[in-house]
């Protein structure tokens, strides 16, 4: 187990630096000068622009810029925001917290709705409830998230007035964006849960447990649920990692001040330190959650050995 964790951490470091290197290369070849564009349409004094380029190290080759970034990253320094003249960690810290709250709320909805719907559909196969779950999940998967968000805004914010149209950071304003993020994932979780449960229910060890006279509840909880939940945990872990990286469209629709909204704004402004900072956070969280999911496998299923 220890060797496996060390090896995975090494892989995480490689992935993190590889992702930032690719991003650096992409930003480097894009046309335009981010420092020169800070003044908008107003012309800047070339001498001032040159001073700013020197201050932010943009006058150096890509390899030198990336080397400086890696050196500072090891120290926990993600650079300075071009527009606010503040450290990137200071700018993104509160936004990461907002995104984390939204992601946790969405994952809770995913697990509750998705697992329960899949469980009901599998246990009552071909019944009214199974058909209903299949129909609703098909409809949910067919709608893009921004359409779901606009429908929720139109019905529950504009028409009914139950929730604020634009998020203000409160719990009440978090409900609609959380459901917007969760609906599609919950539908996929329900489909996945139903399929894996039906497969496990046909397994020989489940039939043997039933033949031995074990209570139905024991068979479901100890044998069926425990083995059916493993693929669901994988999907939820990956989905949670993606959500923590920032939900660009949803956060933009609801004006939720999170990582995704910060990334959209930074791209519009050409604010490279924020762009790289958001991607660095996102990749780090994603690979870390993948490691935690792998370790959770061994807890859920003792047959799985990590080596």
From TrEMBL:
Keywords: Cell membrane, Membrane, Transmembrane, Transmembrane helix, Transport. It holds the Pfam family BPD_transp_1. InterPro entries: BPD_transp_1_N, MetI-like, MetI-like_sf. The chain crosses the membrane at residues 12-30, 102-124, 131-154, 174-193, 232-254, 274-300. One of its GO terms (biological process) is transmembrane transport. Coiled coil: none annotated. Gene3D superfamilies: MetI-like (1.10.3720.10). GO terms for cellular component: plasma membrane. Its main location: membrane. Residues 96-297 form the ABC transmembrane type-1 domain. It is found in: Cell membrane. This is ABC transporter permease.
């Amino acid at each position: 187990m220890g060797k496996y964790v060390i090896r995975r951490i090494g892989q995480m470091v490689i992935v993190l630096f590889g992702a930032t290197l690719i991003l650096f290369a992409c930003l480097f070849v894009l046309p335009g000068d981010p420092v020169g564009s800070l003044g908008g349409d107003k012309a800047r004094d070339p001498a001032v622009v040159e001073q700013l380029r020197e201050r932010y190290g943009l006058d150096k080759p890509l390899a030198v810029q990336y080397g400086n970034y890696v050196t500072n990253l090891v120290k926990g320094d993600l650079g300075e925001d071009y527009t606010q003249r503040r450290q990137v960690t200071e700018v993104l810290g509160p936004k990461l917290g907002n995104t984390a709250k939204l992601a946790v709320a969405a994952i809770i909805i995913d697990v509750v709705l998705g697992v329960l719907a899949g469980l009901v559909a599998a246990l009552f196969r071909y019944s009214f409830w199974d058909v209903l779950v299949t129909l609703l999940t098909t409809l949910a998967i067919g709608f893009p998230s921004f359409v779901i968000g606009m429908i929720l805004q139109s019905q529950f914010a504009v028409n009914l007035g139950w929730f604020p149209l634009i998020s203000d950071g409160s719990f009440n304003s978090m409900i609609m964006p959380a459901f917007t993020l969760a609906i599609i994932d919950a539908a996929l979780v329900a489909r996945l849960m139903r399929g894996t449960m039906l497969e496990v229910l046909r397994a020989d060890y489940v039939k043997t447990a039933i033949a031995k006279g074990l209570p139905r509840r024991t068979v479901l909880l100890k044998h069926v649920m425990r083995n059916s939940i493993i693929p669901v945990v994988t999907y939820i872990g990956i989905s949670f990692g993606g959500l923590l990286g920032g939900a660009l469209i949803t956060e933009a629709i609801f004006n939720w001040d999170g990582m995704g909204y910060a990334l959209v704004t930074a791209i519009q402004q050409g604010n490279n330190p924020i762009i790289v900072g958001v991607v660095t956070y996102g990749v780090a969280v994603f690979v870390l959650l993948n490691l935690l999911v792998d370790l959770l496998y061994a807890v859920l299923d003792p047959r799985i050995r990590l080596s």
